[in-house]
Amino acid sequence: MNLPNKLTVLRMALIPVFLVFVMFYTIPHNYLWAAVIFAAASFTDYLDGHIARRDHLVTDFGKLMDPLADKLLICSAMVFFVGIGWATSLAVFIILAREFLVTSVRLIAAEHGRVIAADRWGKLKTVFQIIWVLFTLLTMWTAHSLLDPSAIPPAWMVYGVLILEWVVVLLTVFSGFNYIWKNRELFSDAK
After folding, report:
1. Which domain CATH number covers 94?
2. pLDDT tens digit string along 155-179?
3. What does the pLDDT look like over 61-90, one tens digit per residue?
4. Which residue segment(s) compose the domain that 68 sits in?
5. Do the domain assignments include residue 191?
């Protein structure tokens, strides 16, 4: 297994560690630690892609597992946010539906001997998802690190979380339609 693929596997292994920190509020500054772990795991996404392209180590495993690792990491955070009221279920449903749809198209392509890598719109969507998750975690940390347990974070942070959430939804919908359109020939036998 080459280094980029090991980084992808590491990103997947960091998901349960991230979830431990994000879920157990008894850990001091748990949301800050969760943000650090999430940022480190997200950085491995950039790093594995950079190394794979630079050293010509792009593999079918990486093309399939790298986006899956991203989805698992980001979706674990979003599902948690819905559970505690920091994301709307409609937004997360739309995002998850797109992810399942794109994964299904990748599986259909694999049956035809094709591996479809993420395009620039999918990558931009992922970048904004990472920004949204990190901003939300830092906003939650701000709220929970104040001395007054009933305190809420500054309004600009709360609105920032909401705005980022819907920017992600718009990018998700657009990148999903773009992905389906670019690969529409895979559906030509669905008559």
Report:
1. 1.20.120.1760
2. 889 899 999 999 999 999 999 999 9
3. 887 788 889 889 999 999 999 999 999 999
4. 3-186
5. no
How many separate domains does the chain show? 1
Longest Cα–Cα distance of the chain, Å, equals 62
- Tell me what pLDDT residue 167 has: 97
Fill in the amino acid letter for 11.
R
**Average pLDDT score over the chain:** 89
Query: Amino acid identity of 2?
Result: N
Phi-psi region of 142 (alpha: psi -120 to 50; beta: other; left: phi over 0): alpha
Residue 103 lies in a domain: yes
Q: Answer left, alpha or beta for residue 113, where phi above 0 means left and psi between -120 and 50 means alpha.
A: left
Q: Write the single-letter amino acid at 94.
A: I
Is residue 143 in a domain? yes
Which two three-digit tokens encode residue 61? 């495993």
